Amino acid sequence: MKELNDIIQSYEKALLQNKQIALATVVKVEGSSYRRPGARMLVTEDGEITGAISGGCLEGDALKKAQLAMYLQQNKLEIYDTTDEADSRLGVQLGCNGIVYILFEPIKINDPNNPIQILKKIAKYRKDAVLITVFNENKSASQKGTSYFINEAKNIIDNEPKLKEESIKALETKETIILKTENNSVLFQFIPPAVQLLVMGAGNDAQPLVEMASLLGWNIIVADGRQAYATKQRFPKASKVSLTRPADILSIAEADDHTAVILMTHNYNYDLAALQQIIKTNCRYIGLLGPKKKLRKMLDELREKGVAINNNTMERIYSPIGLDIGAETSEEIALSAIAEIQAVFSQRSGSPLRERKTSIHHRI
Fold first, then answer.
1. Among residues of the chain, what percentage have pLDDT more than 90?
2. CA-based, 20 to 30 A from 305: which of 9, 271, 284, 299?
3. pLDDT digits (tens, 9 = 90+) for 281-339
4. What pLDDT shows up at residue 299?
């Protein structure tokens, strides 16, 4: 989602500067590649680039193709073959041994349904969505391009029953799929909303946590009961900083299943009261800074108050917080916690990739 938000911001900037722009999208990959289908890059007429479609080997040529698409005002498909080590066309051999299909779309600014406007609609709502891009693997054929999106309303696509059926399937399975139709190929890209990070505690150790989360494009909310700590000056990268009592936590943010919460006020009673509120939600991750005995004590006290704590609740609570990387300093602990949250949301173990027995990326 961060890449999409960056592209949207660059689009708005280009509009103010009256620049022509084009969107490059990886629509299909055969074999291996640095980026997967759905990766995007925005290009302006004067060569400014936002986003990425490869590890750097394709961007130079893709820039030229994007500028050509702007000049012709036509969608164009380009196919890059990185399997030939003797081929020096790309300037740098990535060694990925893949064939990458990239669709170039000049952005018609006056079109209310141009690809960037569709991305803006997706980013506006914190809901799962599927973005539909129609392309033809024959480079000489007409390329329809980024055409629709669908979310939980399931009513975005009209008069396209097959596309709607496959879109709903991608939405329900939360997977990106590519479908070959009679005349075209279609990329159904599943796009979840950005992770929302609710940080309960505005101490100094929360600052590196917020900095790292902002680099990932997460939506960050910081809350604390201390007026001197809960300030926007201390957390400029947070979208909201709130002076909040534990009882009012649920009024400052909708803790949905795309939300991670970290309790780190270093105030036992505040953290306890906050935990009592947070476990009522369906947030996917609840991290508690401190030793296991602190968590056990809290859970015992909550049970004594009659708070129901089932297996689902326990599966969402992580304490001590973070992956085991030997973290000691605030910055290292922040890195450990951010990595653990990423692993949880990606449904990965957080173990070294060299120990993984299957492909790093999900096969589409």
1. 59
2. 284
3. 999 999 999 999 999 999 999 999 999 899 999 999 999 999 999 999 999 999 999 99
4. 95
Contact 209, 198 (CB under 8 A): no
CA 350 to chain centre: 18
b/e per residue, 254-292, with b = 16+ CB within 10 A?
A: ebeebbbbbbbbebeebbbbbbbbbbebebbbbbbbbee
pLDDT of residue 123: 87
Q: How far apart are CA 301 and CA 295, in angstroms?
A: 10
Contacts of 278 (CB under 8 A, 6+ apart): 249, 255, 261, 263, 286
Residue with tokens 């050509």: 68
Residue 210 corresponds to which amino acid?
V
Helices (H), the chain: 2-16, 59-72, 115-124, 161-173, 206-215, 268-278, 292-304, 311-316, 330-346
Closest CA to 302 of 281, 261, 267, 274: 274
Task: Give the CATH number of domain 196-346; options: 1.10.3720.10, 3.40.50.720, 3.40.640.10, 3.30.300.30.
Answer: 3.40.50.720
Averaged over 93-118, what is the pLDDT? Answer: 84
Chain segment 243-268, per-residue pLDDT in tens? 999 989 999 988 888 999 999 999 99
Q: Could you tell me the pTM of the whole model?
A: 0.83
- The residue type found at 51 is G
Least confident of 42-46, 94-98, 236-240, 290-294: 94-98
Q: Are 135 and 143 in contact (CB under 8 A)?
A: yes
pLDDT at 305: 92
Whether omega for the bond prior to residue 320 falls within 30 degrees of 0, making it cis, is: yes
The span from the CA of 17 to the CA of 197, in Å, is 34
- CB burial of 229-247 (b: ≥16 within 10 Å; e: otherwise) equals bbeeebbeebeebbbbebe
Query: What are the sequence ranges of the domains in the chain?
Result: 2-191, 196-346
**What's the alpha-carbon Rg for the chain, to the nearest Å?**
23
DSSP 189-252: EEEPPPPEEEEE--STTHHHHHHHHHHTT-EEEEEES-TTTS-TTT-TT-SEEEE--GGGGGGT
User: DSSP 3-state assignment of 164?
Assistant: helix
Q: Six-digit token pair at 133?
A: 């891009």
